[in-house]
Amino acid sequence: MPGSAPELIVIREVLEGMLAPDIAAAVLFTALDRLPGEPSSPEGWVQFVTGPLREALRERTNEEVAGDLLGRIGQILGSAGPVEERPQRPSQAPTGRYPTTKGPTRTLVVAAGSRLARLLKVALDNQIVPMVLNDPRRLSAFVHDFAPMLLLVDMTDPARFLPSLPELAKALDPEVIAVIWDEGTEAGKALTEGFQAVGRRWVWVNRHEGVEPLIDLVRASRS
C-alpha cells in the first residue's frame, strides 16, 4: 500500500515534527513526484533522501534546516529494528493560509491513472481520502456513497470524456469546488470554461508553480 513503507513513515514523521504541515506535505509530494515510482528497497530510500528530498527541502527551507532534517532522518533510518507507525504529531508552526478542521477531505480525483491520488495520500496521510474516477460518466455512482468534498481533475493524466464532466458534476453538492491540476493545456482551459458555464466554483492550479495551492485547497476542504 502507498505510504506503508517504514522508511516513508520515518520521513513523514520527521518532516511533520519540524516543519509546518503544509510545507511538510509540499516537500514530500514534490520529492516523490520527481521519481518514476516509490522506492522499493532501503538503498532506494537512501538515494531518495540524498537526492529528491534534499532538493525539495532546499527549495522550501534553507541549508541549515535542510541539514538538520536530513541528519535526523539519516539517524533514524540507520538505527536497528522495525519502525512502527505513530499518530501524527501536531506542529506548533503556522498551518498555512486556510483554516482547517479535523476530518479528512474526501477527494474525487478524475484521472486516467492513480499517480496524483497516491502522491497526495502519501504527502497528506490521514488528511485526505482520495478516490480515482477514470470515466466521468460514472460520477453519479460516487455522489451519495462517497460524497466527495473536493473534485480534482488531473490534466497531466487526463481521463476520457472530460468535456462532459462539468454537466455531470451538477449532481455533486453545490459547495464542492472543482480544482484543475494543469500545465496550461487547452483542454484545461476549456474545462474551466465549462465549469463556469454551469455555475460550479473552480480553481485552476499550475503544476509548474508547485503543489502548495493544491495542498491548501485539500486542507481547507476538510470536514
Helix content: 40-55%
CATH homologous superfamily classification of the largest domain: Response regulator
Main sheet record: 5 strands, parallel
> Which runs of at least 5 residues are low in confidence (pLDDT < 50)?
79-101
The rounded distance between the terminal residues' Cα atoms is 25 Å
Which class of the largest domain in CATH terms?
Answer: Alpha Beta
As for the CATH topology of the largest domain, it is: Rossmann fold
- Mean pLDDT level: 86
Return the domain count.
Answer: 2
The ordered string of helix (H) and strand (E) elements is: HHHHEHEEHEHEH
Biggest sheet: strand arrangement: 2-1-3-4-5
Helix count equals: 8
Please state the overall shape, judged from the principal axes of the Cα atoms: elongated
Strand content: 5-15%
Please provide the count of β strands: 5
Structural class: alpha/beta
Gyration radius from CA atoms, angstroms: 18 Å
Q: Per CATH, which architecture of the largest domain?
A: 3-Layer(aba) Sandwich
Task: Characterize the structure shown.
The chain is an alpha/beta fold and 223 residues long. It folds into two domains: 6-77, no CATH class; 105-220, Rossmann fold (3-Layer(aba) Sandwich), CATH 3.40.50.2300. It contains eight helices and five strands. Strands 2-1-3-4-5 form a five-stranded parallel β-sheet, with helices on both faces. Helix 5 links the parallel strand 1 (105-110) and strand 2. The radius of gyration is 18 Å and the shape is elongated. Mean pLDDT is 86; it is low at 79-101.
